[in-house]
């Protein structure tokens, strides 16, 4: 499955590292996914809501299934979230540029998470009609 198919087949997406700043990548990704009719859950312990949408402290606080987790945090933080992502039943982990380390990839694969190393915005831009 290519990157665009992963996005197209994912209807419920968690953006880990959601940020209130519209200039930050997490916020841009969140909005772009919503434009593509995805149900999007922002995850960041520093916010309770952004633009009227609830923001979840952890992935475990989402009371719904999630098809895809998009990581937009530094690898030193992301690696500590992998077990919760797996426990939530999420099998696909999208790693934005800057979120990747050899240790994080190794742990994700040990947990049998499928990793996608790409930029959500670029995939949508490259495939715009």
Outline the fold blueprint.
Elements: H1 3-9, E1 12-16, H2 25-35, E2 39-43, E3 49-50, E4 53-56, E5 68-71, H3 75-78, H4 82-87, E6 92-95, H5 102-110, E7 114-117, H6 120-126
Short descriptors:
alpha/beta, 129 residues, 6 helices
Number of helices: 6
Strand runs, count = 7
Q: Per DSSP, what share of the residues sits in E-state strands of 2 or more residues?
A: 15-25%
Instruction: Give the end-to-end Cα distance, rounded to a whole number of Å.
Output: 20 Å
Radius of gyration: 13 Å
Overall pLDDT confidence: 96
What's a concise summary of this model?
Helices cover 34% and strands 22% of the residues. By secondary structure, it is an alpha/beta fold.
Overview of this structure, please?
- There is one protein chain.
- The protein has six helices and seven strands.
- The protein has helices at 3-9, 25-35, 75-78, 82-87, 102-110, 120-126; strands at 12-16, 39-43, 49-50, 53-56, 68-71, 92-95, 114-117.
- The chain has a seven-stranded mixed β-sheet, sandwiched between helices.
- Strand 6 (92-95), helix 5 (102-110) and strand 7 form a beta-alpha-beta unit.
- It starts with a helix and ends with a helix.
């Amino acid at each position: 499955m290519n990157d665009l198919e992963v996005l197209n087949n994912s209807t419920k997406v968690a953006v880990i590292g959601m940020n209130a700043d519209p200039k930050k990548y997490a916020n841009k990704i969140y909005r772009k996914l919503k434009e593509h009719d995805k149900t999007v859950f922002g995850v960041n312990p520093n916010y309770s809501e952004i633009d009227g949408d609830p923001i979840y402290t952890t992935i475990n606080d989402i009371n719904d299934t999630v098809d895809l987790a998009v990581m937009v945090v530094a690898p030193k933080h992301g690696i500590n979230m992998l077990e919760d992502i797996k426990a939530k039943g999420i099998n696909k982990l999208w790693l934005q540029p800057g979120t990747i380390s050899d240790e994080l990839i190794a742990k994700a694969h040990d947990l049998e998470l499928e990793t996608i190393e790409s930029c959500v915005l670029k995939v949508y831009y490259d495939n715009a009609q």
